[in-house]
Amino acid sequence: MKVAVLDIKGKETGRKVDLSKDVFAIEPNEHAIYLDVKQYLAHQRQGTHKAKERAEIAGSTRKIKKQKGTGTARAGSIKSPIFRGGGRIFGPRPKDYTQKLNKNVKRLARKSALTLKSKDKALLVVEDFNFEAPKTKDFKAFLASLGIENKKSLIVLGDSNNNVYLSSRNLERSEVITSSELSTYKIVNAGNVVLTESALEGIESNLKK
């Protein structure tokens, strides 16, 4: 499948690249996408939530009232969960939310997500570019030339480029990453995916394994 290569102004350069059928034209596996996105979101959780239980509460251990004759329920400790300031029953404890996922499933998920973007015509290829200095104005002009200034966009570079990254940092709906940072979640979460030529080479070589 051939796709026209655009320049930084959104115009066709006259060149076309052939997208690999093994990466951009497979039979999408939506369950693999679900598993990979689920793992990604699970890994964002710190798992440091903690509430004190009755054994961890600072307080007196004396029996707070006599056993009988008060007309109320017996009580032995001020740290009991039924009293204000007492411990919490079955409170949250620190937990590791990481999940394991087979490498082949993750690779299949990324290829499936890229295939769906390609089918939806939400995948663009541009030649490698750079800015002379970090300027949000220049990056916004770049997005406007591609017609995606008002959409969620993911720009994938072959190698890290500080000027391009800093130019995009103030834009909430746009994200710049390198091909090695590409994940299924980022692909699915973006409305449009823009690949530079060097990023395309890296993605294809990585996902064809």
UniProtKB/TrEMBL annotation:
Gene3D superfamilies: 3.40.1370.10
Superkingdom assignment: Bacteria
One cellular component (GO) term of this entry: ribosome
Xref: SUPFAM superfamilies: Ribosomal protein L4
UniProt KW Protein transport keyword: no
Gene Ontology process terms (BP): translation
Region listing for Disordered, in residue ranges: 51-77
A Pfam family hit: Ribosomal_L4
Keywords tagged on the record: Ribonucleoprotein, Ribosomal protein, RNA-binding, rRNA-binding
One GO MF term: structural constituent of ribosome
Subunit details: Part of the 50S ribosomal subunit.
Family affiliation: Belongs to the universal ribosomal protein uL4 family.
UniProt cross-references to PANTHER family, sorted A to Z: 50S RIBOSOMAL PROTEIN L4, LARGE RIBOSOMAL SUBUNIT PROTEIN UL4M
Function: One of the primary rRNA binding proteins, this protein initially binds near the 5'-end of the 23S rRNA. It is important during the early stages of 50S assembly. It makes multiple contacts with different domains of the 23S rRNA in the assembled 50S subunit and ribosome.
Designated name of the protein: Large ribosomal subunit protein uL4
